[in-house]
Specification:
single chain; 294 residues; mainly alpha; 71% helix; globular
């Protein structure tokens, strides 16, 4: 049931019901496609008046060209269509690449704030990023989740809960409601050290956060949930052989929260070499995060 509701919610976001900027991007993409169609039309009519045997610009006299002399090349309208489609796909693909690079750069900037001794460096960065994306729906919920997770990393349970209590969660999409439970999971793990509660919260988050596979963040969300479950199981001393590879893969994640939680789980595992390596990561990348070192 949550997948259907989340799909409807995400479709509203994509179609611009909640975000004007998404609508503007779709309009720009449509304008680009119209421009490419215009170029293709001009290209097509130009080729229609061009002799295929010479590639020149003189009108074609069909009676003077023997069938055997015509080149065995694909029809030029199809070539023009392929060129136009190729340009469109190139521009579209470049847009995805640029967006991916920007997202990873934001992750690197967030990671730099986690090396600070002051949690407010991270909080300020999260707030500035959310202000930049102020038109997205439920921005207050997403910001509260990130701020609560930051406080949990630094072992400040009361401040973390205050961030969550400041938001009205009732009546929102299941995906949005899962943000609160996800942050509470971090509080249970890093502040209360309550593995049973963390496991209960993880099951609830997994149930509420189901999204369609075509959603751009589906892969990262799946990885985060897998790392959370693996960290809980390893810390509880069960299923190490199955969960340790998941945590090792989590160390390659671009999001610093996922990477740090994977290191936290490995630091509680049975393999001493992995424990030492994970502790070095925690010391280097979040030296003042008490929740990770407790």
């Amino acid at each position: 049931m949550s997948r259907e509701k989340n799909t409807a919610y995400l479709l509203k976001v994509l179609t611009g019901t909640h975000e004007a900027r998404t609508r503007q991007r779709l309009l720009r993409m449509a304008a680009l496609w119209v421009a490419l169609l215009g170029l293709f039309s001009a290209y097509y009519f130009y080729l229609a008046r061009t002799a295929p045997a010479t590639g020149g610009t003189q009108p074609l006299d069909a009676h003077r060209v023997e069938r055997s002399e015509r080149p065995s090349t694909p029809p030029r309208p199809l070539m023009g269509m392929a060129v136009a489609g190729g340009i469109f796909l190139l521009v579209l693909g470049n847009g995805f690449v640029v967006a991916k690079r920007r997202r990873r750069e934001r992750y690197r900037q967030l990671a730099r704030t986690l090396r600070s001794s002051d949690v407010f460096d991270g909080l300020s960065y999260v707030h500035s990023e959310m202000q930049r994306m102020r038109r997205i729906p439920d921005r207050d919920a997403y910001e509260a989740q990130s701020r609560a997770q930051l406080y949990a990393l630094f072992g400040e349970e009361v401040a973390a809960r205050q961030q969550l209590d400041a938001v009205r969660w009732e009546g929102r999409a299941p995906l949005v409601q899962s943000c609160r439970l996800n942050a509470e999971l971090w509080i249970a793990l890093l502040c209360q050290h309550d593995l049973a509660e963390a496991e209960r919260l993880h099951s609830a988050v997994q149930r509420l956060s189901q999204v369609p596979p075509w959603w751009p963040g589906a892969g990262e969300m799946r990885m985060a949930l897998q790392v959370q479950r693996a960290a809980i199981d390893v810390a509880a001393g069960r299923a190490e052989s199955e969960r340790l590879p998941v945590l090792e893969q989590g160390l390659e994640a671009h999001h610093p929260f996922v990477r740090l939680l994977a290191a936290w789980g490995l630091a509680r595992g049975p393999v001493q070499t992995s424990v030492d390596a994970a502790r070095r990561i925690l010391q280097e990348e979040a030296p003042h995060a008490k929740g990770l070192h407790g």
